[in-house]
Design a protein that fits this description.
By secondary structure, the chain is mainly α. It has one domain. It has eight helices and no strands. The termini are far apart.
Length: 183
């Protein structure tokens, strides 16, 4: 972990852990899996983890100062926590490094795609990137794109001090209910 504020390493760890916990809490919102249609699988949860972490990292990098160092520390923490999760799922010790590399590449690729899509004024590129990554192209991601835009607006309103001292202001996901199945 790099130093955010001189030699306050324990304080830095608490900040990064709090950011990571905020990302994880957002990923665990049932609305994504019920109304949002995200598969409640390792891959579905990973896609939401990447999305939320990428949005926070994007903002940390934009605020300057120790923000970019905090962004890297957050990424490191996210991946440090993925390692034991994969082992719990039964991925063998020899395969974990290879899987971690693939997950890191996925994180980088998706982060770049989401950032590029967010730079456009319409939601078509964002909808496409989310549909392709989160839903495997199975359906449009219009509602998720609106959620992402709302999240970006909330994050962009924060200063570096806000980001490092407050809970992450992820909006409540308002996604449609899944269609009812007629019996």
């Amino acid at each position: 972990m790099s130093f955010l504020f001189g030699s306050r390493r324990a304080a830095n760890r608490r900040i990064i852990d709090r950011l990571n916990e905020g990302v994880i809490a957002a990923v665990r919102s049932r609305a994504f899996y019920t109304g949002g249609g995200v598969p409640d699988t390792f891959n579905g949860r990973f896609e939401l983890l990447v999305l939320h972490a990428a949005l926070v990292v994007r903002r940390l990098r934009a605020v300057g100062g120790p923000g970019p160092a905090a962004a890297q520390d957050l990424i490191d923490t996210v991946f440090r926590n993925l390692d034991p999760a994969m082992r719990e799922l039964g991925v063998g010790d020899m395969a974990v490094p290879k899987r971690m590399k693939k997950l890191a590449e996925a994180f980088i690729g998706r982060s770049v795609a989401y950032d590029a899509a967010l730079q456009k004024t319409d939601d078509a590129a964002l909808d496409d990137a989310l549909s392709r990554n989160v839903y495997g192209g199975a359906h449009k991601a219009t509602d998720l794109a609106h959620y992402v835009r709302a999240t970006v607006r909330a994050l962009d309103a924060l200063t570096l001090d806000d980001l490092l001292s407050r809970p992450i202001p992820f909006p409540e996901p308002i996604l449609p209910s899944p269609p009812e199945v007629a019996l």
